[in-house]
Amino acid sequence: MLEIKNISVSFKDKNVLQNLNLEIEEGIILGILGKNGAGKTTLFESLYQSQKYNGEILWQNQKLLRKNISYLETENYFYPYITGKEYLSYFSKDRLPKTIELAEKFQLPLDKFVQYYSSGMKKKLALIGMLMLDKPINILDEPFNGVDFEGVHLLYDIIRELKQSNKIVIINSHIIETLFHTCDRIVTLENGLISNIFEKTDFEKLNHFKFV
Ligand SMILES: Nc1ncnc2c1ncn2[C@@H]1O[C@H](COP(=O)(O)OP(=O)(O)OP(=O)(O)O)[C@@H](O)[C@H]1O
């Protein structure tokens, strides 16, 4: 279980997260919906331990450590003169064949310098690297952005596999249909806390949902 307990984050006089609480069980794919500036990135960075916060984040009853979590950020930055294959070799070590298989499914030109990749290709490359880290908790921030039709379907399969391996996946997407398709549960982030929790059977209600 991942337990987020009374997390608060402030920037100067702005309280971005205010005593936010959330529990996520293993094998759950959780979607987060929030308006621009609602604090999703701040929450992800707190989970990733790159943002200072007040409160507690526990994984299996211990303080959550960076080694247990991976984070696919919205923007992906690469050294331009590295090839896709060289990049992935840093992550995969003993799993290079699996990595290359995934890259082939995504039709990534692995021998090209990353500087010649499109933004969708960079997203796919970063995603494969992240998957190879094989962490129990995985944050995907806008993973569908820039990814082509076939890539989206591959990503659906990958998320399904992560669920089958009992991993936690936290997804932020402004394309609600992608959340309907992938998530077991969707929460809304408003005024610094989790304002609603929708289970799969309630997703229909989100079609009419309005933020306060
Ligand atoms: N380092 C910072 N210093 C000051 N204010 C910040 C900082 N980081 C974020 N903020 C503010 O905190 C609020 C939440 O930002 P955050 O990036 O977490 O929102 P978000 O939900 O990820 O937004 P978006 O959907 O636009 O990416 C915003 O008002 C933002 O301006």
From TrEMBL:
Q: GO terms for molecular function, please?
A: ATP binding; ATP hydrolysis activity
Q: Where is the signal peptide?
A: none
Recorded hits in InterPro entries, A to Z, give: ABC_transporter-like_ATP-bd (IPR003439), ABC_transporter-like_CS (IPR017871), ABC_Transporter_VariousFunc (IPR051782), P-loop_NTPase (IPR027417)
The keyword Ribosomal protein is assigned to this record: no
UniProt entry tagged with the keyword Nucleotide-binding: yes
Which keywords describe this protein according to UniProt? ATP-binding, Nucleotide-binding, Transport
PANTHER family associated with the record: ABC TRANSPORTER ATP-BINDING PROTEIN ALBC-RELATED
What is the name of the protein in this document? ABC transporter
Whose protein is this, by species? Chryseobacterium piscium
